[in-house]
Amino acid sequence: MAHHLGIEGVIIGNKYKFLYTYSINYGTNFYTISPEQTQHSVCLNTEITNSLPWNFVLSISIGADYGKFYGNNFGLSVSLIRSIGF
Q: Is the pLDDT assigned to residue 85 strictly greater than 80?
């Protein structure tokens, strides 16, 4: 069983997205987990567009898991994007 929460929007011309999941994991029909294992997962993404020259977009994503099901993990992604139109 899982509960999800997601929020996205724009602040000062920059996009953001926040995702959160809380899950209680009992296993499958053939393999049960006892006691159940809980997990928290979070992802935050933002795109900075107005502050960079030459139409560059800086995208930053941070993700994390905390719990017994997937363990504790952390990830970071940084991208520099430039689109050219034809």
A: no
Over residues 28-65, the pLDDT tens digits come to 889 888 899 999 999 999 999 878 888 899 999 999 99
Single-letter code of the amino acid located at 7? I
DSSP string over the chain:
-EEEEEEEEEETTEEEEEEEEEEEEEE-SSSEEEEEEEEEEEEEEEEE-TTSSTTEEEEEEEEEEEESSS--EEEEEEEEEE----
CB neighbour class for 32 (10 Å; exposed up to 12, middle 13-18, buried from 19): exposed
pTM of the model: 0.81
Count of the separate structural domains present in the chain: 1
